[in-house]
Amino acid sequence: MRLLSLRSFCVCSRTLFSQRPTTKPQQRALSGAAMRLVQFHRHGDRGVRVGVELGEGLGVVDLKAFDPLMPSTMRELLELGDEGLQCAQRALTSGQCVVERSDIQLLSPVLAPEKVVCVGMNYRDHCLEQNAPIPKEPIIFSKFPSALTGPYDDIVLPSESEEVDWEVELAFVIGRRGKHIKEEDALSYVAGFTVANDVSARDWQMKRNGKQWLLGKTFDSFCPLGPALVTIDSVKDPHSLGVRCLVNGDTVQSSNTDQMIFRTEALVAWVSKFVTLTPGDVFLTGTPPGVGVFRKPPVFLKKGDVVECQIDQLGSIINRVV
Fold first, then answer.
1. What's CA 185's distance to the chain center, in Å?
2. What whole-number distance in Å separates Cα of residue 162 and Cα of residue 211?
3. Phi-psi region of 57 (alpha: psi -120 to 50; beta: other; left: phi over 0)
């Protein structure tokens, strides 16, 4: 008989430990648990749940079913800090409350983040393919959180654009609150990594709205994300991962994250100079060369196309264009 739920234990232990004096809390890392965390809902039930994959493409442990006091969303789980991730690890180890993949639909690993931070021109070859100078500081822009969609959801072509393009990107999610974060401490603020497609309406990005990027980047469905939030301890080296994008089965982008100009640590440190980072914030780290707009002639997405974005160790997202 369980006298205390795992969630209650986590909250109580966090309260007790918070009373102890600490030094340099910014150096405390997130839980060392290696997991693939997902958000999903069961078919016929629109309620959001958080789960842990037994393995890529395998069944999912439903955290809420394991303990009704566990959070229902990824953002809430991350807000619990180390204790939340440790509880998720215990649920995974139990092997209980497993739902089959055929019974669920995977959602974006994070819903309604406070911020979606994007980085432009962050691969040298991507700068070269457009005859642009290599940036000396990160180029930061944003998408609205409403652009996020699931790893297998449709990309909806807006009637307002005729030049919709693909951009495979390594993404990461912030795991704890921080401001003015030192670069050497930055990875301790990262919960994990995932795959993103920074879908872009090039006409709105490059020709209209004063060539300001936001509108061209933030149409509904313009940020497929997933399939899982792979915790940082599950990734051997986030800056040595193969990155690929395929359109209708043909490879259009292929690179490696070691080609990035500004890596995860530098991006966390840079952006936290300006804004407070909070659990669930999503960062898109830029795309390698091979986007459609710089092909000769340019190539844009059309209805019926299937876009697959792949990153080693993280998985694939596959989205049909409608």
1. 20
2. 16
3. left
Cis peptide before 224 (omega within 30 of 0): no
The number of CA neighbours under 13 Å toward the Cβ of 63 is 29
Q: How far apart are CA 74 and CA 38, in angstroms?
A: 8
Q: Token digits for 289? A: 């060369």
- State pTM to two decimals: 0.91
Q: Which residues contact 93 (CB under 8 A, 6 or more apart)?
A: none
Place of tokens 């792949």: 310
- Separation CA 143–CA 224 (nearest Å): 12
pLDDT in tens, 55-106: 888 899 999 999 999 999 999 999 999 999 999 999 999 999 999 999 999 9
For 37, 53, 73, 219, the CA distances from 57, given in Å and listed in that order, are 12, 8, 20, 29
